[in-house]
């Protein structure tokens, strides 16, 4: 019996989902064959556009895109680049977007971040990813539930806003964790290590570096968008970037707050170490007179004083106690002077 081919959550062409907009009051689900036929006659449907979402884990995806779409070469090249920050650029009158997002089971691990690639023109939106991501799946659910999109750029804007909302939830979760740590710190319960805070801070820095749109590319796009982009869409794209900026500002302030908590924990640890070292020093100082006198009296030589005296033991005890009290007074006096 012949085994069924692997699908990786997509069909044999690598298509995860496809929707046609402009023909009905909501997006119509289409298959790969229907998308292929529509693309062959796209000039006959000027008021429509389609969105095709591919899974790059299926090796058939790139082959299908090369055979049935005329995407800019920059899009195909970006599929094989390493991790880069989110950017939106214009190439051959097409918007090329590289969007970093978090996985569904995000748990504040750097490996829980992956990339989504998009190519957007007037009639065609292509999105591709290797791992399931929150923002794009949220967009899929919205379209599946009947939300209509008037243009391809509005689809991109919807995705960016979903990503900003997801990032805001991550920031809120991080703030809740930091609040709990800060409350325990104020209550004197130092049960959090600086290393765990450092890991959280590194993840936030990575999120900020990868998810923040590149300012130069975004500025060029907003200054001179493609001619087919409506003014309303361009304005909403500007507003979505402003929402991103607000979330990133909250993230930056959270990183600074984590840094201050780390410094406070380090100060408390140093204070505890100093206190322990002081106690050890006091014990050493108090034990010094008796150790010296015991060492002297323990020598096997003649002429040891008070050896034949009946009250010699108590005389030595008195001498040791006097020196011990004097040494303790000097040590505590110096500690008070330092404080």
From TrEMBL:
UniProt-recorded Gene Ontology molecular function terms: cobalt ion binding; cobalt ion transmembrane transporter activity; magnesium ion binding; magnesium ion transmembrane transporter activity
UniProt keyword annotations, A-Z: Cell inner membrane, Cell membrane, Ion transport, Membrane, Transmembrane, Transmembrane helix, Transport, Zinc
Record has Protease as a keyword: no
Parts of the chain that traverse the membrane: 277-299, 311-332
Protein origin, superkingdom: Bacteria
Cell compartment(s), UniProt: Cell membrane
InterPro entries: CorA_cytoplasmic_dom (IPR045861), CorA_TM1_TM2 (IPR045863), MgTranspt_CorA/ZnTranspt_ZntB (IPR002523)
A cellular-component GO term for this protein: plasma membrane
Membrane topology of the entry: Multi-pass membrane protein
Main localization category: membrane
Keyword Transmembrane: yes
Family indicated by similarity: Belongs to the CorA metal ion transporter (MIT) (TC 1.A.35) family.
Name of this protein: Zinc transporter
Annotated source species: Rugamonas rubra
């Amino acid at each position: 019996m012949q085994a069924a081919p692997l699908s990786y959550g997509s069909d044999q062409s690598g298509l995860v989902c496809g929707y046609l907009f402009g023909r009905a009051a909501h997006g119509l689900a289409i298959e790969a064959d229907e998308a292929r036929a529509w693309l062959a006659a796209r000039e006959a449907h000027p008021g429509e556009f389609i969105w095709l979402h591919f899974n790059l884990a299926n090796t058939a995806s790139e082959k299908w895109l090369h055979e049935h779409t005329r995407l800019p070469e920059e899009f195909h090249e970006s599929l094989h680049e390493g991790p880069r920050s989110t950017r939106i650029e214009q190439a051959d009158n097409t918007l090329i977007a590289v969007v970093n997002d978090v996985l569904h089971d995000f748990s504040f691990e750097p490996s829980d971040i992956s990339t989504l690639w998009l190519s957007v023109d007037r009639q065609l939106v292509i999105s591709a990813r290797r791992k399931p991501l929150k923002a794009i799946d949220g967009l899929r659910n919205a379209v599946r539930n009947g939300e209509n999109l008037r243009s391809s750029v509005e689809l991109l804007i919807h995705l960016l806003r979903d990503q900003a909302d997801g990032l805001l939830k991550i920031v809120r979760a991080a703030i809740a964790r930091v609040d709990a740590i800060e409350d325990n710190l104020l209550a004197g319960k130092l049960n959090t290590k600086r290393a765990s805070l450092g890991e959280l801070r590194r993840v936030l820095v990575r999120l900020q570096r990868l998810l923040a749109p590149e300012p130069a590319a975004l500025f060029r796009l907003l200054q001179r968008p493609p001619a087919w982009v409506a003014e309303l869409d361009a304005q909403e794209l500007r507003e979505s970037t402003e929402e991103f900026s607000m979330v990133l500002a909250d993230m930056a302030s959270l990183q600074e707050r984590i840094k201050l908590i780390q410094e406070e924990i380090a100060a408390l640890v140093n204070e505890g170490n100093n206190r322990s070292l002081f106690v050890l020093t006091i014990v050493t100082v108090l034990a010094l007179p008796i150790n010296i006198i015991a060492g002297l009296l323990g020598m096997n030589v003649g002429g040891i004083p008070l050896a034949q005296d009946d009250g010699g033991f108590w005389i030595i005890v008195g001498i040791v106690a006097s020196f011990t009290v004097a040494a303790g007074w000097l040590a505590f006096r110096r500690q008070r002077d330092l404080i």
